[in-house]
Design goal:
Layout: E1 2-5, E2 11-14, E3 18-22, E4 40-48, E5 53-59, E6 63-70, E7 73-77, E8 82-85, E9 89-94, E10 99-105, E11 112-119, E12 129-134, E13 144-150, E14 156-157, E15 162-169, E16 173-178, E17 183-190, E18 193-195, E19 198-200, E20 205-209, E21 213-218, E22 222-229
Parallel strand pairs: 13-14
Antiparallel strand pairs: 1-20, 2-3, 3-4, 4-11, 5-10, 6-9, 6-11, 7-8, 7-10, 9-12, 13-15, 15-22, 16-21, 17-20, 17-22, 18-19, 18-21
């Protein structure tokens, strides 16, 4: 079964420096029917103006993934980590027993476009930590599935009952994505694609239950995130 979550149905908040769309309930947007899907709790699509950002704030017991679509984001946290996150990077911050961090647009002029993702941890009370790696580059027109991370590793380790992949579908191409945990969430990032018979535009999501594989296709090329969820 596939349930479509159209981009236009998401929650929305515009704070001037931040234009944010919420696939699930977040901050002032609350929909009891949209409290997350399995271990996936938050998917926010954020556009942060040049010079803008999130001042230092705290998290605990959450696996937080920042996925850059365009631009660059500067990360600093209380473990002493400082990093610039770019398109093509895999990144994970484990909040664990408690972490404080800030995220600011690395440019004072150009916006940064990103997805902020929260996953419920499969173990609570771990030491906070940070991990970042660069995913392989994909030649234009190619289709490729890359493991961003999961509890058994990947480019980074995500301590959740979830495995996250980046799916690149080249123009006119197709991609088969195996699903082993029984459920999946597909988030369209760039370009138009199809998930089986369902058309997906950027910002759309889809909850999938009872499938062992997903068939993705795109006429003009697309980039998607696929969460394999218990």
């Amino acid at each position: 079964m596939i349930t479509h979550r159209p981009a236009a149905a998401r929650g929305h908040a515009n704070h001037g420096w931040l234009d944010s769309f919420h696939s699930f309930s977040f901050a002032d947007y609350h929909d009891p029917a949209q409290m997350g899907f399995r271990a996936l709790r938050v998917v926010n699509e954020d556009r942060v103006a040049g010079g803008g950002g999130f001042p230092t704030h705290a998290h605990s017991d959450m696996e937080i993934v920042t996925y850059i679509v365009d631009g660059a984001l500067e990360h600093k946290d209380s473990t002493g980590t400082g990093a610039i996150i770019l398109p093509g990077d895999a990144q994970r911050m484990s909040a664990g027993t408690g972490i404080r961090h800030s995220e600011f647009n690395a440019s004072t002029t150009a916006p940064v476009h990103l997805l902020q993702i929260w996953l419920l941890p499969n173990v609570r009370g771990i030491a906070p930590g940070y991990e970042q790696a660069t995913l392989p580059s994909v030649p234009e027109g190619d289709s490729r599935l890359d493991l961003i991370g999961g509890p058994d590793g990947g480019a980074v380790t995500i301590r959740s009952d979830a495995t996250l992949h980046r799916a690149i579908v080249g123009a006119g191409g197709t991609l088969e994505v195996p699903i082993s945990r029984g459920h999946a969430w597909v988030q369209a990032v760039k370009g138009n694609a199809t998930l089986g018979d369902l058309a997906l535009a950027p910002g759309d999501g889809a909850a999938v239950t009872g499938e062992t594989a997903l068939h993705l296709a795109s006429e003009d090329g697309a980039e998607l995130l696929v969460f394999d969820l218990s």
